[in-house]
Every structure is written in C-alpha cells, then in structure tokens.
C-alpha cells in the first residue's frame, strides 16, 4: 500500500510540474540557456557553412551518440573524438538525459572497453581494459579524486558524485599518466558537473528541475537548480535529494535486502567576468549519503560525505599564452561504516592546484603544458575497538607538456612528457592503539614499529607518442604508445582490514608499478556513418598484486571471533609480481543512420539508426600464471533508434530498443571461487554453492526500451523499460544480482 501510494504521488507530481512549467513558458525568453534552441541555431549555421564550402552535411546527432563530441580530457585542450590518437569515450548531456543512469558509473556500462561491476547496489567501479581501483584515475571537474588511501579493488569514488548534477562524462581508455600522473594505467575518468559560468548581455534568471522515478528500487530523486547571469556576474545554486530502496532482482530473485540508501547534495558557484577575456569563479560541492546498506554484508551500514571548495581562474589571449586555466582546491572525503564486530572511520583531506596553459607556435604546433600539486592528509580508525591506523601525508609535485604537431595537413604527431616527485610519510599511533593483531606481529618480529613509520620519496618520468593520419576526409588511422605508472600508496603498504574477498595486512617495501600500452585503430566519419575500431596491448611491469600470506603467524584474521576462517578473513599481503601482467583486446563501436531511400517509404521523414559496440578483452598474469584478475566477458550492444526528425535539435520525440549481449566467462583465478561471494548463487551465504558447477559466470542477454517526448520547449519527458523480459542475471565481479524489469520516468523542466 505504501509503495503504491509513493508511485501514485510520483506520477501526480510529474504531471503537475509539467503543466506548471509549460504554462510558465509563455512569454519567457530562454535563448540564452535553452540547449536545444542553441543546438538548432548551431546546426543551421553549420549547414549554411557547408553549403558555402560545398561540403556534404553530416546529419548524425553528435549529442546523442557522441562519436564526434568535443573531447577535453585526452589533450586538456579539446578535440573532436575523430581526431584523438587514444581510445576515447564521451557520455554527453543528451545521452545522460535519455538513459537516466542511477549512478555515474552506470552511465558507462553501455560503452566499449568498459565493464561496470557492482559490489552492492550503491557500488559501481568501472573496469577499463581489465584494470580498476587505484589503476584508474577519477577526476571531478578536472580535480583529482584519487588519494593515497585508494585501494586496488572496487571503490565508490564515482558514487560520491551527484549524478543529477552531471553534464557529461569523459574517459581515456588506456594510459593517461602524461597529463594526470600516478594511477592512470587502465584509464582516466573525468566527470564534468552542470555548473559552469554563463554570462549574458542583460540580467537574467533561469532554472532547471529534474525528477526521476524507477520501479526496481522505488527510487525517488529530484534536483532543483537556479542561476542568475549578467554581463559581469554569474551565480548558480543546486540541491538534490534521493531516496532509493532495496533492489528487486530479475526472475525469482525478489527484493535484495538490504541494498538501500539516501542522499542529499548541494552545490554553489559564483563567477565574475574580470575582463572580456578573463573569468574568476568560486565553487562549492557537497555530497552526503546516509543509511547505505550492502546486500553481501547485511550487518554493515555506512555513510559518506565529500566536500569540495575551489577557486578557478581562466583567461584567453595572454600574449604567448593562448589560454590559461588555474585551479586551487581543498577536498574533504569522509567515509564511515558500522558493523557488528568493527567500525571504520576514514578521513582524506586534500589540498592542491592544477595549472595548465596552451600556446600555439606557428601554424602547425600547439603545446599544452602545466604543473600539478596535491597533498593528501589521511587518518583512519576503528572507534568500536579503539584502534587506529598510521596517519599518512602523501605529497606530489609534477610538470607536464603535450606537443601536438601538424606535420602536414593530413598527419599529426603528439608527443607528451611528464615528471613527478612523490613523498609518503606515515606516523604510527601509540603501540597500545594499534590493532591487537598488529601488536602481536610486532612482538613476534613479523614487522617492527619502524616499518609503520615511513618516509619515502620517488620520481617518475613518463612519456607518450601518438599519431593521427587522415587517409581521407572520412577515415583516420590512429596510433599511440604510452607509459603509465603507479607509486605505492597507503593502501599498498599500510593496509589493515577486510576487502572484497580477504584481509589485507601491512606490506612495506613494495616497488612502483609501470606499464606500456600500444594501441592502433581506425576512426570513421561519413555523412550517415560514424564508428571506430581499436586494438590494444598493455604490459604491466612490477605489478603490485595481492598474494596469500600470513601475519603474526596467522593465515586468517578472525574478525567475527567465531573460531573458524570465513570467506573474507584469509590474510593477503601486497607484493610485486614476479613477471609481466598482460592485457589485450579489441574495441569497436558504430552509429549508422540508414539511407533515406531505404526508410522513407514506410517511415516518411523519420530517420532510423542502427548503433552498437563490441568489446573483447583477454589477459594473463605471468607471475601467478593465472588469468587477468579483472578480465571480463566478450560483450556487445546492438540497438535501433527512431527519431522524429533528422535534425535532433528540432525533434519532438524519439524511441529506441536495444539488446546487451554478454558471453559466458570462465577465465577466473580458481582461488577466488572459494573466497569471493560474487561467484555464489547467494552472495549473503555460501550454503547455496556457486553460480555454475563448472566455475563459470553465466552469459546473458538483456533488452531495453527507451523513448522521450518534448512536451513543450522547456519540458522533456524520458521513459524507459529496462530488462523488460525480467531476466535474472549477475554482472561478473558483482555481489548483487542486477535489476529485474525496471520502469523509469524522468522529467526535465527549464525556465
């Protein structure tokens, strides 16, 4: 009864807000902020320019399929994805509005080269080309999220970002250390928020409302934004609220209790046009998640807070410097969990700056260069047991440069170089405040107190070389060779606590790991067809891996004190792999708008598109002689889309149906079957056995239906019916079954 009432209230609210918004539209000038009108004007201008140059018009919607969106992260300066030497992924604003992801991580699950596992319903750690956790860099508005406390397994860094406040998500698939430093072995993810200074010729006030409902977890989410703009001042404010219940799985799974959470977030930005070519902005972002429950650990409840304060200066035309961006920031990330036998209270505080400039030298050379600095101050404790971990201070300073040389009109070479200096200092608490097991290890001589008092410095030189060769105006051959690295952090050397399938203990003396990635492929850009095909090969040297071990003479830590070894209590130490870790694969994607003469006979002027992608990943850890730990199945996506008009900015409606196809997977280290509940039929208990008797993860096919309708110029309704066959399935490496049939309703209103 309560659930039915909530659903009815949600629908009534959607209809009421739509009516009010459409009524309020009358007489309101929205040209300064209405993205669809702006896009329509840009499209008209583009047509006119192409007609004048007698060039063929490219009619695909760049905002929907994003194969040609402007892409900032890979070069720090902005290029079309057709012109990128590295693997690139963009989820744009329009696509986010249409697919309505529950979290930022889920916005990437339809993309090639990326696999999104879910430790819990709130979870969602992207695996890029077989690497995840602290082998991937996470950015928010270009600001580094990774800290010295980030561990190797699944993490929730993308889940402490308000998905309702996201404008787009950009991903480098492959090495990104030249521009972003340590950890970028698998890739780099930058989440760009919706708040960005927008100045206008006169004083204007605008707003946006987002409402979302989903049936599989009875989600109710909403966001309200207001912004004021003038020739010199911009002010923005937004607040979001979300209430998400336990997730209902497909088939006979039912409600997976507990798996719920709620959150309240807000953000503020103030901008000042210092001069015609200079802006200064101050921003605050606050994320607050409460009552978070985890299906595979029903006794655990957690919460997370993240506060970011920053000041950004941007300028253009400063003599030799064509454009400059300088950001200083302070970030406070807190996480707390309460379990029956232990608590966890962690606080990561970061101060830093990021300065980048771009200069054009002559007609053919562009150089992007700059400096980064950040310092993490980390402390963690177990209040329930009165213990504490060593405090850590992690400091990094770096200089970088990327030169893009247009050798001839059809051939460009990119050369990158970076130098980093690291310093890790740790301060152990009093011996009596250390965990009793750590005290016992010190007493037995396994480690000493001095091992917990670190003062380590290291340097790293990183380089990259790429090319883009335009074979003709529609096909580009691209290639890239890049080195990435990861300096051992707190989680590698001073870890003490449970992780996904074991118990980590201090392992000092670990060496840095590094990688070389070789990739090449083709980009296609025709009037009615866009796509890409990429092959890559990554070699990781001195890979930092987990290995079974002992601590204080114990092979397991009896966390729940039941006298037996449970699945997540076996001791693991960190060490460098004895041999190379190799990952290789192929990524492909396409978007083909069928020719008019194929469809006009039965679809009139409504364009029909076919889109899809395919990913193959394989790898091996030659040190342990086991498969790549985070490899994932052969998978693909195929879909059909029908639009109202060929010009998407003027389109009133759209509808699409798609199938996600995933193959069976069995390339898994056998030791994980017994210890990782991701491979059990019931992740809460090992009594029901493995998912399959042959130690494999079953394949599956899931079908989704989506559509949208522009009710009026400032009200857009998006609907979806995901997994409409109610398929029972689990994503590899996840510890909760995926959602069953899920009806989603989203409404965006502007004024």
pLDDT below 50 for ≥5 consecutive residues: which ranges? 7-13, 23-68
- Tell me roughly what share of residues is in helical segments: 10-25%
Q: What is the CATH topology?
A: Maltoporin, Chain A
Largest sheet: 22 strands, antiparallel, barrel
- In CATH, the architecture is Beta Barrel
Q: What is the gyration radius calculated from CA atoms?
A: 26 Å
**Tally of helical segments:** 9
The total domain count is: 1
Q: Measure the end-to-end span.
A: 35 Å
- Residue-averaged pLDDT, rounded? 89
In total, the number of strands is: 39
Q: What is the CATH C level class, in words? A: Mainly Beta
- Shape annotation: globular
Task: Assign the structural class, choosing from mainly alpha, mainly beta, alpha/beta, alpha+beta, or little secondary structure.
Answer: mainly beta
User: What proportion strand?
Assistant: over 45%
CATH superfamily: TonB-dependent receptor, beta-barrel domain
Quick tags:
751 residues, mainly beta, Maltoporin, Chain A, 22-stranded antiparallel β-barrel, five-stranded mixed beta sheet, 11% helix
List the helices and strands and how they pair.
Blueprint: H1 2-25, H2 35-53, H3 62-65, E1 70-71, E2 79-80, E3 87-91, H4 93-99, E4 114-117, E5 125-128, E6 136-140, E7 143-144, E8 166-173, H5 177-180, E9 187-193, E10 204-214, E11 219-229, E12 233-244, E13 247-249, E14 254-256, E15 261-275, E16 278-294, E17 297-318, E18 321-338, E19 343-361, E20 365-382, E21 387-388, E22 391-408, E23 411-427, H6 436-444, E24 455-470, E25 475-486, H7 490-493, E26 497-499, E27 502-504, E28 513-526, E29 529-541, E30 544-548, E31 571-576, E32 581-593, H8 596-603, E33 608-621, E34 626-627, E35 635-643, E36 653-662, H9 671-675, E37 700-712, E38 715-722, E39 742-750
Parallel strand pairs: 6-9, 27-31
Antiparallel strand pairs: 1-2, 3-8, 4-5, 6-7, 8-9, 10-11, 10-39, 11-12, 12-15, 13-14, 15-16, 16-17, 17-18, 18-19, 19-20, 20-21, 20-22, 22-23, 23-24, 24-25, 25-28, 26-27, 28-29, 29-32, 30-31, 32-33, 33-34, 33-35, 35-36, 36-37, 37-38, 38-39
